[in-house]
Amino acid sequence: MMKLKSYLLLGMVVLSISAGNAQADFNMLNAKNPEEIGKVPEERVIASKDKPLPYGYVDDRDILWSKIVWEHIDLNERINMPLYYPIDSTYVNSSRKSLFYTLLRGIKKGDIKEVYDDSFFKSKLTMKDINQKLTRVDTSDYAYELLNEGETDIKDFVDEISIKSEDIDGYRIKGIWYFDKKHGELKYRLLALAPMAPDVQILGRDDIEAEESLPLFWVFYPDTREVLHEGYAFNERNHRSPISFDDILNSRRFTSVILREENLYGNRSIADYIQGNALFQIMESERIRESIRDKELDMWNY
Q: 3-class SS at 160?
């Protein structure tokens, strides 16, 4: 009976914390004016300041098998849309932001420090490097004429184009599947994440045909967990219980396509050895996925 009471008490605490993290309508029934809607009592804020569930230590001797794979998350897929919206927070609660906005804000504030140019973490990027990938300045011919005439105030004739949340069309992820003999199961660990967008140099230009989207930057995922744990996506099934971006990504609540696997041929991508046939590329992606799923069953066969 005491255990049952303990479980009930724990459930009430979890529900109260979830309510404290509710989306746009928290405190709506008790608000005396619109400004109080969405405000959380200080006591509830303190109670809900939890941390992401830490990864357990995995000894290399306990890994019987592993494979690193690169995948693409298409934000046009309905199941992946919680990672895309909202692209404009004007009409939603101010706490709701897109995954790209949450990542970029964490980098600007210095909460996310491990930012790289590739998924192998060889070339680290500064905020200046990232800004060069996110913005483009277009100076009109008239502005150059003014400069030649000695004018210095030409800001009205200069356009700055920036990549925004609405321009992100997907994410690339790098992760490792491994069989943990200590627990006797196949597990997945996310290692890196990259937002995908068109090249800012051709963004919005009609005279240049748009090419394939490119990774803007790669973040070492363990370094982003605390920031993504504090960012919440909209939960269509229960508006009172949002889910953090960290939970979405760690629990793999998304659909993706495998683009590359760790292999003998320099980690070549599927598109390198199956060219010009999208159907065969998807079939190869599914073959790799099935081979990973079957690995757990194969480990139990003698």
A: strand
Do 260 and 70 meet the contact criterion of CB atoms below 8 Å apart? yes
Burial of residue 141 (number of CB atoms within 10 Å: 0-12, 13-18, 19+): exposed
Instruction: Reply yes or no on whether the pLDDT at 104 is more than 50.
Output: yes
Is the pLDDT reported for residue 66 higher than 90?
yes
Q: Can you read off the two tokens belonging to residue 151?
A: 């004018």
Q: How confident is the model at residue 170 (pLDDT cuts 50, 70, 90)?
A: very high
Query: Alpha-carbon distance 249 to 193, whole Å?
Result: 10
Sign for the CA dihedral angle at 231, 233, 234, 237 comes to: negative
Residue where the block lists tokens 């003998």: 264
| Predicted TM-score of the model (pTM) | 0.80
Question: Which amino acid type is present at position 247?
Answer: D
Greatest CA separation for the chain: 87
CB-side neighbour CA atoms (13 Å) of 95: 21
Half-sphere exposure of 30 (CA within 13 A, CB side): 6
pLDDT band at 202 (very low <50, low <70, confident <90, very high): confident
Q: What is the mean pLDDT of the chain?
A: 83
> Which helix (H) or strand (E) element contains residue 48?
none
Half-sphere CA count of 194, side-chain side, radius 13 A: 26
Task: DSSP for 110-152, please give it.
Answer: TS---EESSTT--SB--HHHHHHHHEEEEE-HHHHHHHHTT--
Determine contact, residues 184/203, Cβ cutoff 8 Å: no
**SS3 assignment, position 261:** strand
Taking 90 as the threshold, does the pLDDT of residue 299 lie above it? no
Q: How far apart are CA 204 and CA 198, in angstroms?
A: 10
Q: Using an 8 Å Cβ cutoff, are 161 and 138 in contact?
A: yes
pLDDT at 8 over 60: no
